[in-house]
Amino acid sequence: MEKRQELYAGKAKSVFRTDDPDKMVLMFRDDTSAFDGKRIEQLDRKGMVNNKFNAFIMTKLQEAGIPTHFEALLSDNESLVKNLDMMPVECVVRNVAAGSLCRRLGVEEGITLTPPTFELFLKNDALGDPMINESHVESFGWAKADDLAKAKALTYKVNDVLKAIFAEGGMILVDYKLEFGLYKGEVLLGDEFSPDGCRLWDAQTKEKLDKDRFRQGLGGVIEAYEDVGRRIGIDFDA
To answer: Where would I find the SAICAR synthetase/ADE2 N-terminal domain in this sequence (predicted)?
Structure first.
């Protein structure tokens, strides 16, 4: 597989074409951003940690019957993935109240949400990734209704799988975002799953083990990411 020109550079990852039009190379960089890219820093080892974390989670999800774009690890900071036609929306599940939900609704952080909530956000940094609903997605042609329904169902299935995995490691999966795309007509989970795109708390102390450590200036960001990974069985030195 030959990596060719860079197709896209996001806030923390770059996407490269390959000599196979159905495959892409996803490169995880050491960049860390917050507040819609207004704050960006370099954190040593972050690209490697998130690449291996994502590979581990995607493999676990595939084993549970959830289709993803992940193909294989290529190096410490690169993975081979399927080339998806991405939906420009983020699917968010919240098991516990935190972050923007608390700010929007004035609810206390830490409240368990029963059942978990499902939200949609438009991927648009210039607009601040606004919250949208399923009618918006269909009316503006961002995704077909059937494809969005499949993405929603898969998002909840991911919740069941990952809540159990993190619980075994003594953690609470507070919330997370997922992105989906189409591959030859099939809805697949794309992008990544890492502590950059979810909230994870220690089940006993409620210590934050995710990117909120960066957003809130708590320090020890990569150390927390590695702690999470080791708790669920990831060997970052392999």
So the answer is: 7-231
Backbone φ and ψ for 189, nearest 5 degrees, come out as -70, 130
Instruction: Give, in order, the Cα–Cα distances in Å from 67 to each of 24, 51, 186.
Output: 17, 18, 9
Q: How far is CA 51 from the centre of its chain?
A: 11
Residue 61 in this model has a pLDDT that exceeds 80: yes
Q: Would you state the structure tokens that stand for residue 62, as one six-digit string?
A: 């595939």
Beta pairing partners, 85:
182
How far, in Å, CA of 19 to CA of 233, rounded?
Answer: 34
Of 138, 118, 141, 120, give the one whose Cα is nearest residue 129: 120
Lowest mean pLDDT among 2-11, 20-29, 50-59, 178-187: 2-11
- Count of other CB atoms within 10 angstroms of residue 137: 21
pTM: 0.94
Mode of pairing for the β-strands spanning 13-18 and 23-28:
antiparallel
Q: For the chain, report the end-to-end CA distance as a whole number of angstroms.
A: 22
How many angstroms separate the Cα of 6 from the Cα of each of 40, 81, 111, 124? 21, 14, 43, 21
Run of H or E residues at 65: none
170, 231 contact by CB (below 8 A): yes
